[in-house]
Amino acid sequence: MINRAYVLILHGLLLFTSGANSQVIMSDGSVTVCSGVFMDPGGTGNYPNGATQVLTFYPLHAGDGICLDFTQWDLDYSIFGWSELSFFNGTSTAAPLIMTATGDWIVSGSNPTFDFNGPGMVCANGPLTVEWNPDDTSPGWEANISCYTPLGVAGCNITLSASASPICQGDSIELLAEGNVVSTPLSNDFNSSTIGTGWNSTVNARFDNPCGPGLDGTPHLWMGVEPSPRTLQSNAYDVSLGGTISFDFKMATQGNASPCEGPDEADEGVYLQYSTSGGTTWNTIHYFYPPFYTDGSSHALAWQNYQFSIPPAAQTANTAFRWIQNEISSNSTDHWGIDNVVVSFPTATTISIDQGLGVGTAFTDAPIISTNYTATITDGVASCSASVTVDVISCSCDADVGTMSASTVGSTQNTGMATDQFVLCDGDSFVVNSNNDFINAPGGNPILDYAIYVCPPTAGLSPTSDSCFTSSFIETPPNVNEINNGGVNANIINYLTGIGATVIDNTVWFVPITLSMSATNANEYDSTCYDLGNEYQVTYLNPITFLESANCSSGAIDVSIFGGYPEFFFGSYVVSNTGSGALSNNLVSNHGGQLSITGLQNGDFYGFDVVDTNGCTVSFSGGPYTTPTIDTIEVINPSCNNNDGSLIIQASGITGIGSYSLNMDPAQSSNLFSGLSAGTYDVIVTDVSGCSDTAMVFLSALDGILFDTITTHLQCNNDFTGTIEFDQVTGGDGN
């Protein structure tokens, strides 16, 4: 076992380092460490009362275990509450609970010497998680941190690894051999229903599993009616090279009937101890604390496997181990069981590697041909071997992209461009054809490909090391035919912007490369042998587009021109008239520049052709030219003095959807106005181009009804002889 003064800290854990005396302070998070001191949150002072904290210890090497060996322990405990420290065999509090410990016990009475000064050593067979639940304040704890390799059963183990394979001729490799030969002088599973061999004590135990099966269901040793001290002591063994102790353990549950009644007093726990003095003095490795006084903890109430690293002070040629329960309430109480006890230690071994390398575990070699190396470990009795093959290949790089022919298809002229600079009109193609004189790179899946950059590549620099490289290849080797039509994957600009690349002025660079790629990804190529060719700079011009608006006051159409060559370069648009009217100018000198078509009459069709500096052509056409004209207005006069008149307006020559308004009021899309009173109205019709027509209309009101009456009076009362006659009725609509 090797202890290293190296600490990796994560998640904001508070840490002090000073060589081998690094200090890990209890806090939330995780830590990777194999040495140092673990302390409570108060450090060298008292810990405070605060929130629960969880810390996970990881060993430096996968497969190793973590141990905490407590040298100081003083936690608060009272009838009002107590602080607890819980240990879990894994990476979280969901892992198996090893134990929960609390208090600073000094027991008087029958055993005034009992002083619980902590759990001793607590080990996990991998990462170890610690949960701290404070209740008050007290001095706290200190524990030494160490890592160990779980040894397991007896046997021979070795691995041999090489730093690289294949390698080029002349290159060196590092060989590393690791292994051990494990001896297990004590390995007892009690399946014979006896105490078995390897022990230096006798015990009146039961082997009939009276309280249920163990982890493997076979017989185990159960401390039944044995008086105290209940002891199981091993012979003395040579563990001077270190080692591990592994066993299954369980305490019975408090309150059950005998022989399944469990320990409950603080001093009724079980010690794991060692002696290097022939049994004269004993030192505690771990104390299995009864769970009765912890806050609902269930540790040790179910069968669980425990592993411990043999402490440095116990690593002698004459070390014995024992499990002892000093105090019990009676012979029929406080029971516990043990099973599958294994004491393992590595024997003294020699490791050697063939091919003339000799004895040792690490070598550097430079094979000139493919070579099989074998490492062998032996302790003089047992031996085993492991092999690794290092393939040696020829790494001369003959890769060559060869020669290419590049051109454009379409109206593109590339006037004034450099030899390898191409500007594509919308709809044109950029074509690169290999002349098929390339030489593939050696290795699997050789290919001639094209790397894509968003700025000029650096000569001689591998694509993956060039900040301009997009991490993309055109995988249509050995030729490229890129169409500037904006379709999915047909225009590389669309693809690159889709993956988040920043493309300036729609310009990319294609560089031919012959390489040996992985089976699934051209980005994973052999960077030791490849060849880059000359770059091709390609700009994908946007389509030439137009924005027109009518100028009604002068009978003209104003047109703005966008896109094409002038959008990214210094250039212009040459315009020639193909329709009615006259052009205001034949040369538009910039992206977004304007011209006008003047002298247009209603019904005229207009248009022109455009050629930009790059030879990109497009035609523009429009018409017929129209302005709004009010044709008819249907008038419905209001009745008498009411507001029930209306107007229905019919107009022609409207571009787009027309709008209608009266007397400069807000416009509406409907040509019907209702709810009108008598009066004069200015009618305005406007189209989307801003052109309009106006008219005036009058709504007249009808005169009121006037009349005379001729009256004939009654001759007698109630004889119905009277009359009233209306005469000279005028006004209204005459009906």
Number of strands: 56
- The CATH topology of the largest domain: Jelly Rolls
Structural class, please? Answer: mainly beta
Which bin fits the share of residues in helices?
Answer: under 10%
Mean pLDDT: 86
Major sheet characteristics: 7 strands, antiparallel
Residue fraction in strands: 35-45%
The CATH architecture name of the largest domain reads Sandwich
CATH class wording of the largest domain: Mainly Beta
Give me the Rg, rounded. 49 Å
Morphology: elongated
CATH superfamily of the largest domain: Galactose-binding domain-like
Helix segment tally? 1
What's the N-to-C terminus distance? 123 Å
What is the domain tally?
5
* Low-confidence region ranges: 1-20, 108-113
Summarize the structure.
This protein is mainly β and 735 residues long. It is built from 1 helix and 56 strands. The protein has 5 domains: 7-148, Spermadhesin, CUB domain (Jelly Rolls), CATH 2.60.120.290; 155-181 and 349-393, Sandwich (Immunoglobulin-like), CATH 2.60.40; 189-346, Sandwich (Jelly Rolls), CATH 2.60.120.260; 404-540, no CATH class; 545-622, Sandwich (Immunoglobulin-like), CATH 2.60.40.
